[in-house]
Amino acid sequence: MKATRPAWEEKPTIGGQALKGTSIVVIALLILFPLYTIALTSLSSGETVNRVGGLVIWPGDGVTFSAYEQMFRNPVVLRSLVVSLAVTAVGTVISVVVSILGAYSLSRPGSFGHKSILFSVLLMFVIFPGLIPVYLWVSAIGLRDNYLAIILPMAVSAFNVVVLRAFFMSIPQELFDSARIDGAGEFRVLWQIVTPLSKAVIAVVTLFYAVGYWNNWFNAFLYLDDTSKWPLALVLRTYVVESAPLPQASGLQDAPPTLAVKMAIVMVAIIPALIIYPFVQKHFKKGVIIGAVKG
């Protein structure tokens, strides 16, 4: 009797391949078309934007960088860009280091408070302290109007710690035993054995944290009263989403239309993620899926 194979192991039909290809093309267009219109509007002249009356779909009177020139001459946008870069860099380093240390300790059986701490981490998936307790905690320790107020509340993600822990547990125990026979301590084992073998999952977790800090505007909205400390994400929300007037930069004879400047701010906000994702994408399957399944 001929054994039957599951449907997902069968060779795809021509119709199935055509449907899959069409679906991929449609999804790609749905993703790329908004990016195309945003980029084209930010590069369009005032006449083109005024003639269209909204987002530009077809190039008109040529390409101009006047919107980007005004944006980078504007102290509000330029300062917020520097703040976002600094907060993202510092916050990502803190989050990755703390997550690696926590995940490694939770992956070692018999470590101090292993079960209770692991239970607390897993409990964070279903129970979150809420906005008011976190706000009161930040205010009580004097972090209002401080950059640490937008870093510490999101410094550790329970999901990232669990993913790192699962990957660390998949490393053969023989490597740990041989390192300890050679006299290596826990920090040396972590630095010279665990970290090199976990580059894929660390790269993915680093990306998760970096994108989270880069796009985070809500904590800045709550805790930063000084507008000069606002990150780019909050400036983007204020001047683009809420349509607040953006201060005009000096030195430009023909100021670009407001819509073009807004779209230029949007492009600057999304370009870093577009640049980083292709370099980290190859690690996603190995870093997250395999580690999570093995855990």
UniProtKB/TrEMBL annotation:
<comment type="similarity">
    <text>Belongs to the binding-protein-dependent transport system permease family.</text>
</comment>
<feature type="domain" description="ABC transmembrane type-1">
    <location>
        <begin position="81"/>
        <end position="276"/>
    </location>
</feature>
<dbReference type="GO" id="GO:0005886">
    <property type="term" value="C:plasma membrane"/>
</dbReference>
<feature type="transmembrane region" description="Helical">
    <location>
        <begin position="147"/>
        <end position="168"/>
    </location>
</feature>
<feature type="transmembrane region" description="Helical">
    <location>
        <begin position="21"/>
        <end position="43"/>
    </location>
</feature>
<dbReference type="InterPro" id="IPR035906">
    <property type="entry name" value="MetI-like_sf"/>
</dbReference>
<dbReference type="Pfam" id="PF00528">
    <property type="entry name" value="BPD_transp_1"/>
</dbReference>
<keyword id="KW-1133">Transmembrane helix</keyword>
<keyword id="KW-0812">Transmembrane</keyword>
<keyword id="KW-1003">Cell membrane</keyword>
<dbReference type="GO" id="GO:0055085">
    <property type="term" value="P:transmembrane transport"/>
</dbReference>
<feature type="transmembrane region" description="Helical">
    <location>
        <begin position="189"/>
        <end position="214"/>
    </location>
</feature>
<feature type="transmembrane region" description="Helical">
    <location>
        <begin position="116"/>
        <end position="141"/>
    </location>
</feature>
<feature type="transmembrane region" description="Helical">
    <location>
        <begin position="81"/>
        <end position="104"/>
    </location>
</feature>
<feature type="transmembrane region" description="Helical">
    <location>
        <begin position="259"/>
        <end position="280"/>
    </location>
</feature>
<protein>
    <submittedName>
        <fullName>Aldouronate transport system permease protein</fullName>
    </submittedName>
</protein>
<keyword id="KW-0472">Membrane</keyword>
<dbReference type="InterPro" id="IPR000515">
    <property type="entry name" value="MetI-like"/>
</dbReference>
<keyword id="KW-0813">Transport</keyword>
